[in-house]
Amino acid sequence: KPKPKSKSKSKSPKSYPFIGHYFTIYANRHRLTQWTSDAVLNSPNLTFLLRRPFGQSRVITGNPETVQHILKTRFSTYEKGDTFRTTLSDLLGDGIFNIDGDEWKFQRRVSSHEFNTKSLRHFVEHVVDAELNERLLPVFTFSAENNTVLDLQDILQRFAFDNICKIAFGYDPGYLTPSLPEAKFAVAFDDAVRISSERFRSITPLLWKIKRFLNKGSEKRLKLAVSEVREFAMKIVNEKKQELADKSSIQSVDLLSRFLSSGQLDEKFVTDMVISFILAGRDTTSAALTWFFWLVFKNPEVEKEIVKEIVEKSDCLGFDEVKEMVYIHASLCETMRLYPPVPVDTKAATTDDVLPDGTVVKKGMMVSYHPYAMGRVEKLWGEDWKEFRPERWLEKDEKTGNVTFTARDPYTYPVFQAGPRICLGKDMAFLQMKRVVAGVLRRFKVVPVEDDDNEPVLVSALTSKMKGGLRVKIKERK
Ligand code: HEM
Known about the structure:
The chain has 18 helices and 14 strands. The chain has helices at residues 22-27, 32-41, 64-73, 81-92, 101-112, 117-146, 152-169, 184-198, 205-214, 217-246, 255-261, 267-298, 300-312, 319-324, 326-338, 371-374, 378-381, 426-443, and strands at residues 47-51, 57-61, 78-79, 149-151, 345-349, 353-354, 360-361, 366-369, 394-396, 403-405, 444-448, 458-461, 463-466, 471-476. The strands form five sheets. It has a five-stranded mixed sheet, sandwiched between helices. Strands 4-14-11 form a three-stranded antiparallel sheet. Protoporphyrin IX containing FE binds at residues 96-97, 108, 111, 164, 277, 280-281, 284-285, 288, 341-342, 345, 415-417, 421, 423-425, 428-429.
């Protein structure tokens, strides 16, 4: 197992009494993911102690052993915790992302049915297939014929949003239609996520709580955005309740029906669940795919291999064919190593503890693991870690010539988290992304409009995005 870096490259950021690293945090407030990543990478044991004002400290780690300790070995010690819960409670309420203990176990158990093989097969062969063939590809065809510019990230968010609503709630918002309708909901959702996550940067939580109490500035905007989001989620819930009441037996197989028929009729609870699933399903796969198409354009030899893998399959891509596409799978893993959709994820300690790297953790302290930094550790990925090389995930059997995908251990690559709370939608996400890649690259080339050597910027608010989106032209593949 590779060992973390043993030497510090440069000194740690400067910390002052009372305010800790606040000056540097403030100066880097628009690139905190990148700044904390540098701090982790420059630390000898890949663990950095971020000192916040008023003596609050947060551990941030990129050390696989420590990540395993937090996410698995001491799972019950590291919870979401009160700070996380209160900071996000206006938006997420008691949804699965924001709870611990028995409540979390219940939601996880009911939700996990949604991700069994039968559901996933239905998802890829019907839901994703229809959204791809009836919406995404026609939008691309129009763009190719008329030489228009598209914001690929926006298109992919619409695509993912329609899909998650259809599979989880049996509801089609029709957000990716040729006219690309403005959706008040989507704007409100982005605002709500961004402002909620900005609360974490407040010098003390008291500040945003006072602002909320006075209903001023960003808190006023957050309140409006959250009520818009809740109204939309509640509409879905009420329509589903009506549908269930109208039917003598339950035919719907979606998650929402499952919650409603398990006796969960509390409107607030089910609405919270809907919001968490939209967050999980919309922004993660769309961000990953946006970076993927940019990286593939920048690496034509990878694109060639991908197209080769696609044309070897028949036109009709079902569940099994999609699963078999190992080169695309590897390319997506490689994309998310460099640009993880959840770049940093945070827990809180319920008791005092000592991490395997010797860091002392006090009860109540926040402890984050940093997939963005971990994808950049030379000792874990080799000297060529900067390169986009799907081959690092593949193994060729010299006798048979068969190429197989080799996963890294989930604590070295915690892009989907790891341990008992590992992402429930991992397989669903891969199936969806692979089906999109195969459907798009079989027919089209995706060409960024700004083709210079500048790397797009990753910005993060709970989940990451490409700053400003990705403007592309679509060309028919000859
Ligand atoms: C590339 C795509 C995705 C990535 C990288 C990803 C990553 C993650 C991560 C890091 C977490 C842990 C979050 C936390 O607890 O703080 C998580 C949890 C979760 N994800 Fe995903 N996710 C993806 C797609 C999806 C999709 C499509 C769904 C489908 C709805 C989904 C459903 C969930 C759920 C329900 C949880 C909560 C699990 C729990 O707390 O027990 N994810 N995901």
